[in-house]
Amino acid sequence: MKTPAIYQTVFPKLKDTDTVGDAMRRMLDDRVSDLPVVDASGKLIGMFKLDRLYATLLPKAALIGYGIPDLAFVSDTLGQLRGKMRAIEHRPVHEFVVRPVHVIHADTAPLEIVLLLHQGANNIPVVDRDGGLLVGMVSARDLLTALQAGEGK
Amino acid sequence: MTHGDAAHVSAVIFGLSPLWVATTLFVGTYLVIMSDKLNRAIVALLGAGLLILVGVLNQHEAMAAVDFNTLGLLLGMMLIVNITRRSGLFQYVAIWSAKKVDARPWGILLMMSIVTAVFSAFLDNVTTVLLTVPVTLLITDELKVKPYPYLFAQIFASNIGGTATLIGDPPNIMIGSATGLTFNDFAVALTPVIVPIFVATMIPLYLYWGRHLRATDENRRHVMGFNERAAITDPRLLKQSLTVIALVIVGFMLQRQIKIEPATIAIFGAAVLLLLDNFGKDAETQSKNVHGALSEAEWITLMFFLGLFILVYGIQKAGLIDLMADALLKATGGDFKLTALAILWGSAILSAFIDNIPFVATMIPLIKAMGPTFGGDNALLPLWWALSLGACLGGNGTLIGASANLVVAGLAERAGTTFRFVEFLKVAFPLMLISIVLSHAYIYFRYL
């Protein structure tokens, strides 16, 4: 059984010119925590991830590795955090894109996909080998669906 | 210190005298360390290993050359800090001090510098800046002020504060261990000059940066809204840590009376704190806690020291240290005052550009070798203080002068603030010279 039986070919994605506000709405509508971002030609340029977005709400000191073990003593309110989020709503998503740690191809073996998902990958982009065009996405849920469907799915 | 049975060491190695072989290996090792191309622990251990392999030292001498008192003191204090920091103590003190000055920008700079200096007097400098700089970055972020002046001041504070005590800076630990000078000896001799040096450093910083620092009332209110009590993540561990730290410091102060070396006091304190932290916990949690505390010790530094002790004994045994001591005495005409001041200024200038740990490791036997010329070991006291002040304070002169400087620069870089060598040098070097001028006057009038 090859990957085509597992990955989704219809999936939500962002253009690099979309704004952070667009991305947040799409995430809420589609109930996902990360979205692939493509350029005008459909080539994958990276992932827009919710945890990267949340990092913008944090003080830099909390992100420098050694950093501060907890922020319980900082009294920022939800309203203040909303204000920080609103301040970046109009910025393009390409400023926040992260290079995906893993990409797979249409012919990637299923067991390799199991391994990546087991190692913590969440939504894995599927790109074609020649041009880097984004052709699909596979998630842990997609894999479970494929496994439950049985032979031939 | 005895170095075991040195009866049989080749008089000639590969057709060369041991002096040449040891000197070549020593200089080569130091050059590679200075180049920063290879981790310094690797280089020091390789150099030490080569000294044994070529026969300058035998295995027994090499092991006897290692100053386990220095290594034990460093390791013990590292373990105590690694356990204590989980309690949130250091964040608590930093936030408390910022709020004490109503979150005024200059007040915070001054208070964070004092906190850093005091912590540095009792903890390793690198550990201190790792604990305090993230809080500084958080506060400057909230105040919307540039962090550079704050971090610059903390670099100076860590090196100045570390100079004040036996345990504050590795050069002092090495000097104390080699000479038998105690915690109290260091505190009595060095604190009286360290306090004025700290003040004399802060005044130019105020004139240059401090008086221009501004923050809005709203941003200051953010900082005043910090709840320092919430920074304490483990009150039980906090009480245990403070008790053990207090007892360890009392132990250092009573070192002469109880006749126990600082390494024993520090390691015993660490063991007691580990016991308190793990008492009543299951075996798996105990293993995890102890493994965490041990693995976070600065093993690179400890292995670097180990290699250095062997390297320096190699050149000492080969006769290079005696030659260098003779050369220094010849240059100063055997004048004690001139020798002391030459050590102070030479140590300061060199320590601004090279690692002060290998420098001090080399200078210790060199100064000891001058004992007979100046009337015995007891007469050398001013030379030890000159070495300590020069090597510790000299590290402030450049960005590469001390490990703490580079650690602060690295943390700042990750938070978006760049430290450049020349930009730092322009302010730091004159400030460092001020501290050496004050040290010069202090040593001259008190000891010479």
What labels would you give this structure?
heterodimer; A: 153 residues; alpha+beta; CBS-domain; 3-stranded mixed sheet; two-stranded antiparallel ribbon; 5 helices; 5 strands; B: 448 residues; mainly alpha; 76% helix; disordered N terminus
How would you spell out the order of helices and strands of chain B? HHHHHHHHHHHHHHHHHHHHHHH
Number of helices of chain B: 23
How far apart, in Å, are the first and last alpha carbons of chain B?
28 Å
Helical run tally of chain A: 5
Beta-strand percentage of chain B? under 5%
Explain what this protein looks like in three dimensions.
The complex is a heterodimer of chains A (153) and B (448). Helices cover 31% and strands 16% of the residues of chain A. By secondary structure, chain A is an alpha+beta fold. Chain A has a 3-stranded mixed β-sheet with strand order 1-2-3. Chain A has helices spanning 20-30, 50-55, 78-88, 110-118, 140-149, and strands at residues 14-15, 34-38, 44-49, 123-127, 134-139. Chain A has one domain (3-149): Roll (CBS-domain). Chain B has 448 residues and is mostly helical. Chain B has one domain (18-65, 89-231, 298-447). Helix content of chain B is 76%, strand content 0%. The longest helix of chain B is centred in the last third of the chain and has 27 residues, at 421-447. The model of chain B is unreliable at 1-8 (pLDDT under 50). The interface between A and B is medium-sized, with 17 and 25 residues.
